[in-house]
């Protein structure tokens, strides 16, 4: 029994060592060096060539080396086996920390103080109490819930929203378009943790942004396609938005001529909010393989009916 391993954006050797340590009884075939296609039971991949996964007749499941699944779903010949997203708590923690960092930055006007320091100016701005600063987290999958909970624990007033109703212990949650329209006028920071699909594509558009109060903020740690970037730039120029922290973009890497690079209110990071950490990710994947070998369910199994927007391959930092 073998694992097919391929991380398009990294050397496979680190992954091979970590997976071998976790699963010493399994052979790990690093793509493209696969001598026996019939021996492959599990695919562990990111950015794998389209059409290849159908060549393994005994494939039981495909594990993504990241949380996103578009690198698999865009394969027109993807075999009908369970697809398992990477549900690594270490990644969710990093993403939650990233989002909290920017919420604090926006709440405490840090952008203003950075600029004032350059001019040697000692000018304080008023700050609302932490629990009056309203944060709206869009998308309540495991990452969104982790983000919302951490920011709530820091004392902010957090609401979680999703298309469909989802309960999350200790979190105030709402769902549907009407609830969104009710919340937006009192939201200080919107954080997107939404997977990209037909419903979420450009959900944050001109109409959405016009419902936010003047001086609000946007953080995006999911996929660039959730935001209409031209509408975002207009909202920044008109002072509807006072700041944006963007880790993901509709085209990655962000093209050098793109206005988001140089906008004074925009903070650009290169899709680094939730890196995959090899050691923790390998142990999460290995535990799922052990579960499958015991005829138990791996998790989280991706629901294929949610679909995905055809998207450019996203860069993966490991
Ligand atoms: C990163 O974007 C991931 O999908 O893990």
| Gyration radius from CA atoms, angstroms | 21 Å
The percent of residues in helical segments reads: 25-40%
Q: Major sheet: order of its strands? A: 8-7-6-9-10-11-12
Strand content: 15-25%
Please state the overall shape, judged from the principal axes of the Cα atoms: elongated
Ligands and ions found:
glyoxylic acid
Low-confidence stretches: 310-318
Question: What's the CATH C level of the largest domain?
Answer: Alpha Beta
Note the topology.
Blueprint: E1 2-7, H1 13-22, E2 27-30, E3 40-46, E4 61-64, H2 70-73, E5 83-84, H3 89-107, H4 110-118, E6 134-138, H5 142-153, E7 157-162, E8 172-175, H6 177-183, E9 189-192, H7 206-210, E10 216-220, H8 229-237, E11 241-246, E12 266-268, H9 278-293
Parallel strand pairs: 1-2, 1-3, 3-4, 4-5, 6-7, 6-9, 7-8, 9-10, 10-11, 11-12
Helix pairs in contact: 1-9, 3-5
What would you say about this model in short?
By secondary structure, the protein is α/β, with parallel strands linked by helices. It has nine helices and twelve strands. 29% of the residues lie in helices and 18% in strands.
